Amino acid sequence: MTPLYRSLNAEAAKLARELARVAPTSLPLLLEGETGTGKSFLARRIHRRSRPGKPLVVVDCAAIPETLLPSELFGHTAGAFTDATRPRRGALEQAGDGTLVLDRLDALTPATQAALLRVLEEQRFTPLGGSQPRPLRARVIALVGFGVADKLKTGDFRADLYHRVAGFHALLLPLRKRPEDILPTARAWLAKHAPSFRLEAEAEKL
Where are any strands of DSSP class E within 18-173? Predict the structure, then answer.
């Protein structure tokens, strides 16, 4: 995504080059990694490369109660349920021609996974209480925690949903598993956020 990959180890540099290649496309992406590996940051950068000036909508699938998720994703019409006094645009519609980031997608319940799968297969959705389908135009970027392969084996994460969102699957390893990348990453961060500072020689030797 930036010239930083020239300083990274071979595996990380290869991933950076592949992400730079698919970023400008409409390919759905699955970014897997532990908390702190930069999935959200990377998703935003990819959005700026592929859909500049378009909406970016982020849904934290683990932070919304299951009963509210369908309305959050698909929206609803007035009167769709007891508290629906006015229509509401869901995340799929809000994203428009931009990017929809589904954070912690692997936290969805089987029922919600099935509903989302239908939308991705048909490329359209219907708000709760509505009768007219609406087209899904947004690019989908899914973020999941490390270990999605295990969830696929146990059935906690649907294989068919995985194949829909993983047009390209990127595994982001933490720095502790690639210590040779710590120094170039630190230098790049300083160059961008604190260009007047430099790492001391003793610090670089640690």
Answer: 29-33, 56-60, 99-103, 124-125, 134-135, 139-144, 168-172
Cβ distance 74 to 128 under 8 Å?
yes
Torsion, Cα of 191, 192, 196, 197 (10° steps): -60
- Say if strands 99-103 and 139-144 run parallel, antiparallel, or are unpaired: parallel
Q: What number of CA atoms fall less than 13 Å from residue 163's CA on the CB side?
A: 5
Residue located via tokens 């939308």: 119
Residue 142: strand pairing partners: 30, 102
Note the Cα 137 to chain centre separation in Å: 16
The number of beta carbons lying within 10 Å of the beta carbon of residue 29 is 25
Please state the pTM of the whole predicted model: 0.83
What does the block give as tokens for 123?
A: 């490329």
Kindly state the DSSP code that residue 27 receives in the 8-state scheme: -
Place of tokens 């319940």: 109
Local structure of 14: helix, strand or coil: helix
pLDDT, tens only, 122-161: 999 999 888 889 999 999 999 999 999 999 999 999 999 9
CB 38 within 8 A of CB 172: yes
β-strands 99-103, 134-135 pairing: unpaired
Is the Cα dihedral 157, 158, 160, 161 positive or negative?
negative
Tell me: the pLDDT tens digits for 63-90?
A: 999 888 988 999 888 877 777 778 889 9
**CB-hemisphere CA count at 13 Å for 105?**
32
